[in-house]
Amino acid sequence: MLSLVISLCSILLLIVCVLVGVAFLTLLERKVLGYVQIRKGPNKVGYMGIPQPLADAVKLFTKEQSNPLISNYFPYYLSPVLSLFLALLIWVVTPYLFNLINFELGFIFFLCCTSMGVYTVLAAGWASNSKYALLGGLRAVAQTISYEVSLALILLSLVFLVGGFNLMNFMVYQGYTWFLFVAFPLAFCWLASSLAETNRTPFDFAEGESELVSGFNVEYSSGGFALIFLAEYASILFMSMIFVVVFLGSNINEMTFYLKLVLISFVFIWVRGTLPRFRYDKLMYLAWKGFLPVSLNYLVFFLGVKVIISGS
């Protein structure tokens, strides 16, 4: 009973830390984008604009909630909540060495949660009863499903190498060299697929402001918008963490792990400040004719390597 209470308290503490991390990731993004565009970011609230995310959260959650009269009420309200719930739930696979749930099938759980995230975006787009929101939702579903295929195959290649779905294995197996050097092209494919999976620039078709006003979340304001926003940034942080665990093998109890996590999160922001949006057909071409053959070839290669090693 005591161990269960300690585990629950640890998970609660982890969720609080993730939410604080998300708050300051938004501040980092606004500062970095400011300097990319040769202007100052938030610098008026408090010292150097540091409390800005807290002020934004208070503003969003105290705004009047408006709801479209012809929206489908329950999916409209529940999809942002479910989106944030999934984005936070997925963090329990983090390979901590103490007082947290240790998943033997952590990667399968990760793929299940990311696949479930598709339904929240589709429900948000459909339930808003707006043509722009529906188009954004449909785009997001096609895009996410396409890139999940390459994500799963890249993971499977590395799972063959380490011989298990537990994230702990990656920390053990990368004691001597990082998988970034072993599978350099796969790391780039994973990073690009992560950008597409989290609906980030240059793959932000679900929120294409130039043609869809604001995409699938166009009818959301105040609390609902804040929850969608939190879920997106929690996913960015999680994908950065997975990239570090899988390719930049660092012990999660070392300070360097968190520096690498911040660096990968910075890459997400840097890409947003640098690259224009893709054309939609090129997005699909990249997924099915670019990443899929590369990940399949690596899968066969690593499978062959594993068979040769086990045979000898």
Automatic annotation (TrEMBL):
The keyword NAD applies. The keyword Cell membrane does not apply. Belongs to the complex I subunit 1 family. The chain crosses the membrane at residues 76-98, 105-127, 147-168, 175-193, 225-248, 255-271, 291-309. It comes from Allopsontus sp. 1 JZ-2014. One of its GO terms (cellular component) is mitochondrial inner membrane. It is a multi-pass membrane protein. The gene is ND1. This is NADH-ubiquinone oxidoreductase chain 1. It catalyses: a ubiquinone + NADH + 5 H(+)(in) = a ubiquinol + NAD(+) + 4 H(+)(out). Its EC number is 7.1.1.2.
